[in-house]
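One-letter codes give the sequence; the integers encode the fold. A sample entry reads:
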Amino acid sequence: MKDKINQVLKETNQIWLGKEEKVKMALLSFLCGGHLLIEDIPGVGKTTLAKSLGLLMGVDFSRIQFTNDLLPGDILGTHIFNKEKEEFIFKKGPLFSNFVLVDELNRATPKTQSALLEAMEEEKITVEGKGFDLEFPFVVMATQNPFGQIGTFPLPESQRDRFFMSLSLGLPDREVEKKILTMGPVKQSLERLRPILTKSLLKDIREDIFSLDVSEALVKYVLDFIEFIRSRKENPLPISPRCGQDLLLASKGYAFMEGRSFVIPEDVQSVAPHVVGHRLFSHQNIEKAQATLKEMIPHVAIP
């Protein structure tokens, strides 16, 4: 299984250059079944990253471009009258997919943003009182424009907390950008990709991650870290128990990707900025919040 995961990473890194650790975190979020929030300027390859992972994972992929006039029905679906059957039938929206890229999430109004909440939390949606289950796997990768840009609506804390992990991609360095300029159209690179994983393998991977061994000392370390963050005066937002659950699960996923059957404190330290950063300091961009989290890590003693 580790060989297949490494193959996914290798293929993705041949298309999306110079960000190996970011690719690893994006794949980690998917393998754990968590939703990923990416914040950055346009043109740094967010869509390319999503399409690459979707193709290599062998799942259905859909993309929704959020705008300020987008309505909840545009993403969830709506009932349409069928003249032949003389009844209303439900036409599913683009949210009915395995891997959903939500582009520029914070350009939509809060009402449309909130339409994602039930799907992200319970993997189902409700339209006009009727529930519809979403097919396994269901993962949202959402992008948002940096905080403070014109035409954006800030994400409420409840929605930020539903994102398992976050990333800030950043600009490539000069040498990597030179390769990007000369590598040719991305579309051709994507067309050659073939699925490496399957839905069945993804289910097995997720079960293996959940079953990884976690010691009492490691759980104590996670709790100590959460309590330390809660105690900081500069942190205006409470850290929910969901955050602690996500931190432990992401640590398990990181250990799994490293080929271990147990979790160590270094796993927690590697994923903590990506799991906790976007849940704090809502007035800051994600990159700055994650940098603050990295400064906090040495202050929590390892048991």
Observations:
- The radius of gyration is 20 Å.
- The first strand starts at residue 36 and ends at 39.
- The beta strands are 36-39, 61-65, 77-82, 87-92, 99-103, 124-127, 130-133, 139-144, 165-167.
- The chain has 14 helices and nine strands.
